[in-house]
Design a protein that fits this description.
- The structure holds two protein chains of two kinds.
- Helix content of chain A is 36%, strand content 25%.
- Chain A is α+β, with helices and mostly antiparallel strands.
- Among the domains of chain A are: 180 residues, Rossmann fold; 170 residues, no CATH class; 114 residues, Immunoglobulin-like; 196 residues, no CATH class; 154 residues, Sandwich (Immunoglobulin-like).
- Chain A is rod-shaped.
- Chain B is α+β, with helices and mostly antiparallel strands.
- Chain B has one domain: 2-Layer Sandwich (Beta-Lactamase).
- In chain B, 52% of the residues lie in helices and 19% in strands.
- The longest helix of chain B is centred in the N-terminal third of the chain and has 23 residues.
- Chain B starts with a helix and ends with a helix.
- Classes of the chains: A alpha+beta, B alpha+beta.
- Chain B: It holds the Pfam family Sedlin_N.
- Chain B: One of its GO terms (cellular component) is cytoplasm.
- Chain B: InterPro entries: Longin-like_dom_sf, Sedlin.
Chain lengths: 1200, 110
């Protein structure tokens, strides 16, 4: 069988094109292609070369319209045994091609050429074309037969020259045909085919052969007429031949003549293809096929068979009919032709048959059929077990890959770019599931694997390592779930083996392993955030946060969710990172020699990384790089150097694969089978690179670890800021964010300001004062239960620490730039310095109680001031008391109704705390913020609380009393009392409460409980709420003074005792001692003074009385057993005390019995006003207001 | 090895026959397209549903009636599969029930 047969093949003159001497193959192809342009030489152009020697047998030659056709066979062909049957199989001419520069000796060329063409017995015309001869060869004027030198010139001139030569050859051939036909007509030649019996003919057969001879001769003449371009003549001869052959039952030749006649018909009707002709051709060819089949002779079947002719005729008809509309008919023809393959003896015949069937199916548009037969061809090639066959097999299989959808990426990219853009569009949009289905024809995975395996096999045999690598890569990547671990190992070995034969650095379009998908595109770390700068505003960063009246808008929400619209800004020269996930779903260790981001835009330096992936594992790795120039960055995937070849792995492919896997259309999700979590769709954002910006880097001086604070601890932290960028920082602003912002007490913002502009490399340190916030109750409970580390972890995890937000920016661009283009302002940045504060539970407050203590005063001569108890509390008192006293009490005033706040504290921590309490006094002006508690100021040891201990701290509350009793506090209260219940009263009540609360708050805020632990750990205890709760009930008593204050003193002036008593400050005093000094002697008239102070703003009239009691509490003045004799008035003293003044009343006592006595003053206030009533909490207005002073002790010395 | 090759060949033949089905399906209103393709002694019979789902049977026998009944019954089974809301049309049918039923039908008719 012959390849590429068609009905017109019968009218083609076959010419062998042989290279003579050494012709480079590219040049040979080039010359051959030049010849191919002259496949058809019109008869009209050859008339000048044609000379009619005798009467032409081609009477009806169409000199105007006809033409000669040629078929150039490069390299020639072996003679066919069927040459007599079909003269178009004969090599009728030989054209030698000689490339002069490589074969300088023309004589040698001629010799070689002669030797070459003499090998073909049927040659009628021979020429040797010598291209690009040298000067010496041109000058060599020796006439050589058949040698044509093509003078060196440009291509068009050469082509013209060649055309002329071809016309000359055509004319020569035509003349030879005429000669042959004339000879054949006259002499009569014996024409035999291999079909005819080779044995000596029996007499019967000789007669039969004689009969047949004429028909065969006529048929052959017809063939020559056809070759000579005269279809009408040919048809005439064929008609005769058909008649004769039918008569002699020579079916084979009959079919041959019929075939010729169809060809003649087509040549005659060249160009006009109507249905009538088509039907005629179809009818006659069916007949041809039938007759070829009839000529099958059983006895010859082993040796030779007309089957090839039958198949060729089928193919010819199929090719003739090969149109979309007739697909069914053609397919049937081809199917029946394929059936014939079984009976073909010669393997190469089978090969040709399948090639032709595949080609015809391909032209028909039946790609899958074509692929099927191509694969059959490849299998036949592979059976041949040699390298060239393997190469052919590989090439044929490569053609089938499209139909089986296992193409190599290279062929795809060659085929169509439009396809790619189309799929890209599909990716971005929503995919209809049908189109998804069509993307993955996983149903045919077996076929795909078989094809790829065959490609691998043939590539290995053909010695094409790259193709083998590519096939193995595709096989492994796409079908690993269907391949056993052993098979996977084999493929891995095949990849490695192929790579060994490839030069290093070879690239392949088809990626192998691992699977790579985008894991995440980290936005800028908070350290390097980029903030759009609004040059018009002072706070240029403000616009960067989403603004607007709505916290949530559905529109902005949708946008932020859409990853594809995400934008990312990278900065020239600053390293960036991209996380990708690699998966190795196969059963072998995968070592990736290097992997780096593949950036199309070329403005990115990617840093390679090498990774080892164990079997069935996935791993997230960080790929980094540096943007090198301004502009967009397009990241398509990763470039991977694995198995010795460099490949590009695109993210999009894996995304498609995962999408298919999610739909259940792909065999397996490589990431999922490696135990990686479910698909997260991450798309590459649009990335743009901008010019360098300043870069601020921070670290906390003394280590970036957590700052551990106890509750309430106050500490300074130094934060070091350095400009790590290449641009100076010109603007800085610090703000706070996050929880517990109030824990940052102060930031030395000025330090930073003064350092501006911060040049690249410069640094500045700013102190920040922190205070440990209060842990919540539940939090502290658990923290107390756990150890310190546990609670630390918890606190950190909660993210309750505040952060410093530092907005900074480099210089603005040119002023003009800003004018023209707002967007050209380089953006600023934001540095977030998270203050990793870990608050540990420190001292904990257990409870607060209000205690009252009553210490009676001693009566002395000291000018004890009854007024202003708060303003100068211990101006005097200090002197009287020992320094180490906790509470210093004026012994002559006593502390009747003194109240203490008792704080119970516990220390659950592992360290020791020292507590000091300070009370800030309200009155300013001098150094009045003395500590009431003497601890801090007066060297009293601080309260120390050991770990896991409790301690109580007492805070005296006496100095909060207001200087005078004012109606203002009660005014509203009174109002409400006076009026009937109504809205006003409600309002006023509330008002009163608010005022009360305010005063409590004021009181509480003045109490500070500070603690210290170790050398540099100190803070303040937050127990305000507890104090408030404790004080709430009795705040009145604490805050408000009594309306009247009473006091007693000795009125002995100028006595010896008084001299001492006047200098109490120098005296070594103790209360006992004072008492002894001021003692009263029995049996002596002792003058006393009672002092009454009015603490209100109104004059108070009262009825004062003084009593004296002995130790037993019995009244020692009155009664039967009175032990004290008195002079002066002791009861019913009517007094009028002006507001805020004191009034004295003198009297004398004579103690009969020494011992302890107590003086008590009491008064009944006349005409008490509402204020007094309220203070006394009297219920009715009629009730007398009774005021009683604190008891004063008098120690009477002497003997009874 | 030989058997494996043959099994693969069967798939290849079926795959190639799709080309013929795609043209033929539009020329007739019948769902059963009979034997539409062959390679050597392997015959491909095809049944095309209204939704252009193709049932292809590769066989070497010539029992057209049996094949037709087989296809019709398989079609019914397939419709039941399609009614499953969790089944994505065009994807692999993994139901073992379907498999056993089809096998039973094959024993019955082929």
């Amino acid at each position: 069988m012959e390849p590429d047969v068609s009905i017109e093949t019968s009218c083609m003159i076959r010419i062998a094109v042989l290279p003579i001497g050494d012709v480079p193959s590219t040049l040979l192809r080039d010359y051959h292609s030049m010849l191919l342009r002259h496949c058809t030489i019109p008869l009209s152009t050859i008339s000048s070369f044609y000379t009619e020697h005798q009467k032409s047998p081609f009477a009806h030659q169409p000199w105007e319209t006809g033409s000669l056709r040629f078929k150039f066979v490069l390299g020639g062909a072996p003679p066919s045994p069927w040459e007599d049957f079909q003269p178009h199989r004969k090599i009728l001419g030989v054209i030698g091609i000689c490339h002069c520069p490589s074969s300088p000796d023309l004589d040698l060329v001629i010799d070689q050429f002669n030797a070459a063409w003499r090998g073909y017995s049927s040659v009628l015309v021979q020429r040797c074309f010598a291209f690009s001869p040298g000067d010496s060869q041109l000058e060599d004027t020796k006439k050589r037969e058949n040698l044509v030198l093509f003078p060196p010139s440009d291509r068009s001139a050469q082509e013209l020259h060649l055309q002329t030569m071809m016309q000359d050859i055509s004319a020569s051939l035509l003349m030879e045909f005429e000669k042959w036909v004339l000879q054949a007509e006259s002499a009569g030649t014996i024409l035999k085919t291999p079909l005819d019996s080779q044995a000596t003919l029996s007499s019967e057969e000789v007669i039969k052969a004689k009969k047949r001879r004429l028909a065969r001769a006529q048929k052959t003449i017809g063939d020559y007429c056809l070759l000579a371009g005269s279809p009408v003549d040919a048809n005439a001869h064929y008609s005769t031949a058909l008649e004769l052959a039918r008569l002699t039952a020579d079916y084979f030749w009959y079919a041959g003549a019929l075939e010729g006649s169809v060809c003649a018909l087509l040549v005659d009707r060249m160009g006009q293809k109507d249905i009538a002709i088509e039907d005629e051709v179809r009818y006659r060819y069916n007949s041809v096929i039938v007759h070829y089949r009839k000529s099958f002779i059983q006895e010859n079947a082993q040796r030779v068979s007309p089957l090839t002719f039958e198949l060729e005729a089928t193919l010819k008809l199929a090719r003739f009919l090969c149109r979309r509309e007739l697909a069914k008919e053609v397919a049937e023809l081809l199917t029946s032709a394929a059936d014939g393959a079984k009976s073909l003896i010669d393997a190469s015949d089978k090969l040709i048959l399948f090639v032709e069937i595949a080609r015809l199916f391909g032209t028909l548009g039946y790609q899958r059929k074509a692929a099927f037969f191509s694969r059959q061809v490849a299998q036949l090639y592979l059976q041949q077990e040699n390298r060239f066959a393997a190469i052919s097999a590989m090439q044929v299989l490569a053609m089938t890959t499209k139909a089986y959808r296992v193409q190599s990426r290279t062929s795809i990219s060659k085929q169509s770019l439009s396809d790619e853009t189309e799929t890209g569009h599909v990716d971005s949009g929503k995919m209809h599931h049908q189109s998804v289905v069509s993307l993955f024809e996983s149903q045919w995975s077996t076929l795909q694997m078989v094809v790829l395996r065959e490609i691998l096999l043939s590539a290995v045999r053909a010695g094409d390592p790259l193709a083998a690598w590519s096939a193995a890569a595709r096989l492994l990547r796409s079908y690993y779930p269907l391949i056993t671990p052993a098979g996977q190992n084999g493929l891995a070995r095949a990849l490695t083996n192929s790579a060994e034969r490839l030069p290093s650095g070879t690239r392949c379009a088809d990626p192998a392993l691992p699977f790579i998908r985008l894991y995440s595109f980290p936005l800028h770390p908070s350290q390097m955030d980029i903030v759009k700068r609004n040059p018009a505003r002072e706070d240029w960063w403000a616009g960067s946060a989403p603004s607007g009246p709505f916290i949530y808008t559905p529109f902005s929400k949708g946008e932020s969710n859409d990853n594809s619209k995400q934008e990312l800004i990278w900065i020239v020269g600053e390293p960036v990172q991209v996380f990708v996930e690699l998966a190795n779903p196969c059963g072998f260790d995968l070592s990736v020699d290097s992997i780096y981001l593949s950036v199309q835009s070329g403005n990115f330096d990617a840093f390679p990384l090498s990774v080892d992936l164990p079997p069935n594992s996935s791993q997230v790795i960080t790929l980094s790089g540096i943007p090198t120039s301004i502009g967009p960055v397009v990241i398509r995937g990763c470039t991977v150097h694995c198995f010795g070849v460099i490949t590009e792995h695109r993210f999009k492919d894996v995304d498609n694969l995962l999408l298919g896997a999610a739909q259940g259309l792909v065999l397996s999700d490589p990431f999922r089978c490696c135990g990686s979590p479910r698909l997260r769709s991450v798309s590459v954002p649009s990335i743009s690179v901008i010019p360098p910006l300043p870069l601020l880097v921070s670290h906390v001086v003394g280590g970036d670890g957590a700052i551990i604070l106890y509750e309430g601890e106050i500490r300074d932290v130094w934060i070091n800021l350095a400009n790590a960028g290449t641009v100076p920082i010109e603007q800085v602003h610090i703000s706070l964010s996050g929880k517990n912002q109030d824990s940052v007490i102060s930031i030395a913002y000025e330090n930073l300001k003064s350092a501006l502009p911060l040049k690249p490399g410069a640094e500045v340190t700013i102190p920040v004062t922190l205070k440990g916030w209060r842990l919540f109750l539940g939090e502290s409970d658990t923290a107390a239960g756990k150890n310190a580390f546990g609670s630390m972890g918890r606190t950190l995890k909660d993210g309750s620490s505040p952060s410093l937000l530092i907005h900074y920016a480099g210089p603005l661009g040119d002023a003009q730039d800003i004018e023209t283009n707002k967007s050209s302002v380089p953006p600023g940045r934001r540095l977030i310095v998270p203050l990793q504060i870990c608050v540990l539970q420190g001292l904990s407050f257990v409870k607060a109680r209000l205690l009252s203590m009553e210490i009676p005063a001693h009566v002395g001569e000291s000018p004890s001031s009854l007024a202003n108890m708060d303003s100068k509390p211990f101006g005097e008192a200090v002197g009287y008391s020992k320094i180490d006293r906790l509470v210093k009490i004026d012994p002559f005033r006593g502390s009747w109704g003194l109240r203490f706040l008792e704080l119970e504290l516990s220390n659950p921590t592992g360290v020791v705390f020292d507590i000091s309490v300070s009370v800030q006094l309200e009155k300013s002006g001098n150094e009045d913020n003395l500590s009431v508690d003497c601890a801090a100021e007066y060297g009293y040891p601080k309260t120390r609380i050991d770990r896991d201990h409790f301690a109580r701290v007492l805070i005296p509350l006496e100095h909060f009393k207001l200087p005078f009793l004012d109606g203002s506090i009660f005014s509203k209260d009174l109002q409400s009392d006076g009026s009937t219940a109504g809205r006003n009263s409600n309002f006023s009540e509330r008002n009163t409460k608010a005022e009360l609360n305010a005063s409590i708050k004021n009181l509480i805020s003045r109490i500070k409980v500070q603690w210290q632990s170790g050398r540099n750990c100190s803070g303040e205890l937050n127990c305000k709420d507890a104090i408030q709760a404790a004080l709430q009930s009795s705040v009145m008593d604490v805050l408000l003074p009594d309306p009247l204050t009473f006091g007693f003193r000795l009125a002995r002036n100028g006595s010896e005792n008084a001299a001492k008593l006047d200098l109490p400050k120098e005296s070594d005093t103790s209360i006992q001692h004072i008492a002894s000094k001021n003692s009263v002697i029995a049996h002596d008239m002792t003058p006393f003074e009672v002092l009454v102070r009015n603490n209100t703003k109104e004059t108070i009239k009262m009825n004062l009385s003084v009593t004296c009691r002995d130790v037993a509490g019995a009244n020692s003045i009155e009664g039967a057993k009175a032990t004290v004799i008195w002079a002066g008035v002791l009861s019913g003293i009517t007094m009028e005390v002006p507001p805020l003044e004191e009034t004295k009343h003198g009297f004398s006592l004579y103690f009969l019995v020494p011992g302890e006595y107590t003086l008590v003053a009491a008064a009944v206030i006349d005409d008490a006003n509402d204020v007094l009533r309220a203070r006394a909490k009297s219920e009715s207005s009629d009730e007398p207001i009774f005021c009683r002073g604190p008891p004063f002790h008098v120690h009477v010395n002497g003997t009874a | 090895m030989q058997r494996e090759d043959a099994a693969q060949l069967h798939q290849f033949v079926l795959h190639a026959a799709l080309d013929i089905v795609q043209d033929l399906a539009w020329t007739t209103s019948a769902m059963f397209l009979k034997a539409i393709d062959r390679f050597n002694d392997l015959v491909v019979s095809v049944y095309v549903t209204a939704g252009h789902t193709r049932f292809m049977l590769l066989h070497d026998s010539r029992n057209e009636d049996g094949i037709k009944s087989f296809f019709q019954e398989v079609h019914e089974l397939y419709i039941k599969i399609l009614l499953n809301p969790l089944y994505l049309p065009g994807s692999r049918i993994t139901s073992s029930h379907f498999d056993t039923k089809v096998r039973a039908l094959a024993r019955k008719y082929l």
